[in-house]
Amino acid sequence: MNASLGGNDALVVAPVLLPLGTAALMLLLGDGRRRLKAVLNIGSAALGLMLAVALLWRIDAAGAPASFAVYLTGNWPVPYGIALVADRLSALMAVLAGTVGLAALLYALARWQHAGMYFHVLLQLQLMGLYGAFLTADLFNLFVFFEVLLAASYGLLLHGGGAERVRAGLHYIAINLLASLLFLIGVAVLYGVTGTLNMADIAQKLPQVPASDRGLLHAGAAILAMAFLAKAAVWPLGFWLPAAYAAASAPAAALFAILTKVGVYALLRLWTLCFPADAGVSGGFGGMALVLGGIATLGFGAIGMMASQRLARLVAFSVITSSGTLVAAFGLGQPTLAAAALFYLASSTLAGCALFLLVELLERSRQVEWGPAQFDDGNDALPAFFEAEPTSGANLDDDEELLVGRVIPGALAFLGVSTTLGAMVVAGLPPLAGFIGKLAMLQALLNVGSASAWALFVLLIASGLLAAIAFMRVGMRHFWTGAERNTLRLRVVESLPVGGLVLALLLLVFYGNAVLRYTQATADALHQPQQYIDAVMGARPRAGGAQGTR
Amino acid sequence: MEIVVSLAVGVLAAAGVWLVLRPRTFQVLIGLSLLSYAVNLFIFSVGSLAEDEAPIVRAGALPDLAHYTDPVPQALVLTAIVIGFATTALFLVVLLALRGLSGGDHVDGQEEAP
Fold it and tell me: Which residue of B has its CA nearest to A197?
């Protein structure tokens, strides 16, 4: 049975309050005191990550697949107040958010924190929005946390300035404002049909919706899904992503690696909750749309990776590929497949984050500076895949002297190995985490056996191949060219987060079985929404205490 | 009442969508504002429209939507207005920054090739 841990688990709300408090404190500190702010920020981000890990630990320790921790804000009874609920999925996403946030922050300490006044505040607010979006169990509260994380991401995208960032930022903000309006329309319609905003309560009331309101309900759910799909950059709603992510500063882009996953998370949460296969008339509503959209996204992302001339755009397209994979896999509605996809979600988020950090280090080593006047709109004429003529000093077979006796500097070796590992995860090559996730997905797809499952099966393999080719091409251009490069200086604080992320990816492999067991339990719980509903609706406010004015 | 609100939502949304699709940044901004007005009015309407009713359950009257107006959409609209206002203001800042950097008001920062 489900192991609900009562209605007053303060550990659930702590990851949200901590960044809020830190951000407020840092605003009070004013413009200067960078060092103090950096220390505060690291402390807070690390503590937030630890809280998320503790939450995950607590929930996993409860044993049952469906275990929940509930916090009722203001001690209001369930459907009236806002409830925060941590289940396995929320805890997993919160840990990922904390990891990515900490990595981006550590990286930013070297240079980027000096590029603007409010970097630390924005980063904390971004984390608050992420934790909140993952933990809330209230639809309108989800909207508010979406706006918090979006508002912070607008600031972070513009961090560092320059025409390219401002232009990409303008598009990003316009798209997201429109998506937020769709979100509001969807929430309003769902409220109009069910009369409640608590997700569990909505799911509980859906079977009672009369047939005359079904159309309205489906329209509202579809409009709401549009907002999430735009956030997850699902084709054809994802054209904003490559320009925005490629323009963002490295730590911001690394942090954005989890933003698309917020859209995927919201889709997964609401879809499994509201439209499970046994929900009668509405059972599995929209599943086919998710699968088709995901497959189209996967194809679009893979082609985009092949067409990318810049490393940053390549990584951005790999983010699109991974969100397409996830949306399609979740849309098929099979617990085994969803478990594999969740594993893939963890590995691809961490790999995306690491690669976005590496992009800047690599571009720096090549002395590539994109002038402020240069816009990259992605459709500039292809430069025939760069150097057709070998540059002087290139390693050529008929010039064998150059092949031997060249010292590889340590920093370059580190970058090369990290990039290779990250690319292998994204492409899903053995023996790394991406391979385990993809293999598990392929196995699950074999058992599904429908036409769309076969299409996804083929596309998963094909996109892995295309990703491998694209990364190999970039790797050859970056590491094997004999072009003069300035001496690569790598600060410890910059290599630390990259190394940490690569280590996390390796740990995902070593503990692959344990992680897969966890994601399997997560997926099983997700596909039995009644337990979630019971846990939330069954939470009781704490007796006595500060009930005061009510 | 329903007709008036529906018409208002429809006209605002139509004008907003048209403006958002225009190539000038200021038109996009006004379009987004109009769209958010439309959405706010729409949220109002989902709580069932009532005239001369308070959003408070009074003693003696049945607590159903025939006797009072739903307070929740009003709270939602208030939140949505505040958030929409803040993000629109931010959009305005970015708009001005792009204008300063590119010297034009095209959304792509440069005029389309003739």
Answer: B72
